[in-house]
Specification:
The strands form three sheets. Strands 8, 9, 10, 11, 12 and 13 form a six-stranded antiparallel beta sheet that branches. This protein has 245 residues and is α+β, with helices and mostly antiparallel strands. The protein has two domains: 77 residues, 2-Layer Sandwich (Phosphorylase Kinase, domain 1); 140 residues, ATP-grasp fold, B domain (D-amino Acid Aminotransferase, Chain A, domain 1). Helices cover 32% and strands 31% of the residues. Helix 1 runs parallel beside helix 6. Bound molecules: thymidine-5'-phosphate (TMP).
Amino acid sequence: MLPTQKLYEGKAKILYLTEDADILLTVYKDDATAFNAQKRGQIKGKGEINCAIARSLFELLEKAGIPTHYIDCPASDRMRVKAVKIIPLEVVVRNVAAGSLCRQTGLSEGKVLPFPLVEYYLKNDELGDPLLTRPRIELLKIISEAELAAIEQMALNINRHLQEFFVKCDITLVDFKLEFGKDSQQKIILADEISPDTCRLWDIAESDPQARVLDKDRFRRDLGGVESAYQQVLERILAKVSSAL
Ligand code: TMP
């Protein structure tokens, strides 16, 4: 399928309109950014790798009864998705302390959390995606209380399924970010992507805090071996996904 009119270019993907108003085409890019795009680079092959990873994980979640925007992949770096209006929330689920949770609370990196922590950030690059509170979500009228409760349940459900699957891949799902959207019937479905760009993934067999990193932290923290880490995640997922589907 040839892309038609560009709808939006994000940091890692380009969205195109298609002949069908209910369907968009997402092209995954090799571009990588971090720290709200202050750091920019390229991860060779990332577009195709992340598209294949996201596809497998969306298929897995669909099979578990979680509605996603995924339709199919007409080529290795592109995905047809249901058109949705994105809810401007970045929903982060954490199982193990890392990243901003450690910086902001003093928890040590690697501490297993007693329960999955669901957090909401405002999806707004200009404001630097600030952490939200429930009253702030209400104040900004982003979504209703009932919709927020539904999103929280979906996020926890997604976490359960992904965590279980990643263990089979010998990977710890440390934390990840989700985005949701409303389809033409106002139904809330999972959108955006799930990939090493949006998850922290640690090799279970590796105890060294740098060697275990299989995600975008390798790029953020200049750890090297970014491409091979992404490739490793894809290979482990592909080795396990067909038996899980
Ligand atoms: P954080 O620890 O930096 O808050 O990140 C939590 C998770 O969210 C981590 O898996 C990386 C992911 N993430 C994104 O996908 N996009 C972002 O812009 C940020 C800041 C984090």
